[in-house]
Amino acid sequence: MQLVIDTQGASLRARSGSFLVSTKEKSRRIAPARLTGILVMANCTVSAQAIDLAVEAGVPILFFDMMGQPSARIWSARLTSHPEVRRKQTLFELDRKAAGAWASALFRLKAQSQVDLLKVNQIPETVLLEMQTLLPQLAAEALPTDGLFEPYLMQVEAQIARIYWQSLGGLVPEAFHFENRSRRPAEDMFNAALNYLYGMLYNVVEGAVFAAGMDPYLGIVHADEYNKPTLAFDFIEPFRVWADELLVQLCREERLEAGHFDVLAEEGKEGLRLNKNGKRLLVPAFELAMHTRRIWQGRDAMARNHIFQYCGEFALFLKNYQPIVRVES
Fold first, then answer.
1. Can you list the domains of the chain with their CATH numbers?
2. Omega of the bond prior to 151 within 30 degrees of 0, cis?
3. DSSP-based three-state secondary structure for 61
4. Using CA atoms, how far apart are residues 44 and 176, in angstroms rounded to an integer?
5. What is the pLDDT of residues 56-99, one digit of tens each?
6. What is the Cβ-side half-sphere exposure of residue 305, based on CA atoms within 13 angstroms?
7. In the chain, helix, strand, coil percent, each to 5?
8. Burial, 93: exposed, middle or buried (Cβ in 10 Å; 0-12, 13-18, 19+)?
9. pLDDT tens sequence across 122-145
10. Is 231 helix (H, G, I), strand (E, B) or coil?
């Protein structure tokens, strides 16, 4: 499970090999073996001993800003795998043909999952057909021959996303209706909740990337974003639809409500963010979703295990990858 600390003035300490979380009202001890991550959502105190315990147990500590976006992370400085994987990772990113083929498969997987979600919710066939006609443009054969596949894939993905978000916005009750994605700040309740869910999903994905022994800062599609864990940004793409699906369900079941959000301003813009009551709903719902079995790519496993296996398989591919050696004439 993920431990979420969202109470102002709380403290996280280590005691007798366990984490001790304290607020003015109560204290709670948690064994490191029970945790997959610690998410800090409010101003609090984290002791050096707690950090040491987290690093030793392989439990990442992730800090979020006021909008629910990841801003910093603490984990071990020791590499978790043979450096061969990381060397191959660098060479693979430079192999534009191979990297482009992998990236196109990644985005096709994401787009097909979006189509499948809309299909399950009985979106009109005309809308589904409009999305499906764009899928061939994500094929490796359709990529530019100059090797600059990133802008091309992003452009096609944006066309599919426009149809997807407008359709998804029609699946929820009127109070949660939206037409487009908004992030900083979120302009509506659906996007505010989705930003928070993506933040938790990002923590799972980055943990899977790191556990597989890859460098999370060496991305393929998002490679140009300086000082960001861009490989995690790549790997989260095909799994975002799981957060979308969960949020649609919560809205339609009327479990999420206006009282779960606060209004705030950021960078001169007014927006919404999930409050403590909203987090108390979303966090256990997300954890349940991550530990629920689902069939994905023909395999039946817990959602979280699918993510770790997907990253692990790519790391194994990198380990066996033979880069093309070019000899200058």
1. 2-59 (3.100.10.20), 83-320 (1.20.120.920)
2. no
3. strand
4. 32
5. 887 878 787 765 566 777 876 665 555 778 889 889 988 999 99
6. 10
7. 50, 15, 30
8. middle
9. 899 999 999 999 999 999 999 999
10. helix
